[in-house]
Amino acid sequence: MGLRQKINEALKAAMRERDRARLSTLRLINAALKDRDIELRGKGEDAALSDADILAILGKMVKQRQESARAYEEGGRLEMAEQERAEIRVIEEFLPRKLGEEETRAAIEAAIADTGAGSIRDMGKVMGALKGKYAGQMDFGQVGPMVKEILG
Fold first, then answer.
1. Selection from 63, 59, 58, 142 nearest residue 108 by Cα
2. 32 and 74 share one domain
3. What pLDDT does 152 receive?
4. What is the pLDDT, as a whole number, of residue 88?
5. Distance between CA 88 and CA 26 in Å, rounded?
6. φ/ψ (deg, to 5) at 75
7. The total number of structural domains that make up the chain
8. Could you read off the pLDDT of 84-102 as tens digits, one per residue?
9. Which residues of the chain are under the pLDDT cut of 50?
10. Is the separation of the CB atoms in 61 and 91 below 8 Å?
């Protein structure tokens, strides 16, 4: 079962269970996927979104909600921050498990070996390889400095 199908099944289940908060978040996910489909069609590409594309979209949605939750907390709107966190929990159900620090470091070293990277100039190649293989499993904001440290 593909990721998109899992999302649609979860949407149907949320409708049956009348879980409004979950249903709302799942509809937001579907809307983001449909927006991306439309964008691809506009470019003349007729391919369906791959699971990697969907994981990238979901990762972006999580990051947006984390930033929003932080902003709401700073503004004293704790109920809104909690709503954002609830959406994050629903979205993360469809993301693969996050890699631990040891696993991340091992993945970076493997990507460096695979790409033949020898200096900081090759960082783009390494990051591209990591994003292709570990989309949704790593926080690339934290991975970048680790790659620099290892290559530097």
1. 142
2. yes
3. 77
4. 94
5. 11
6. -90, 0
7. 2
8. 999 999 999 998 888 888 8
9. none
10. yes
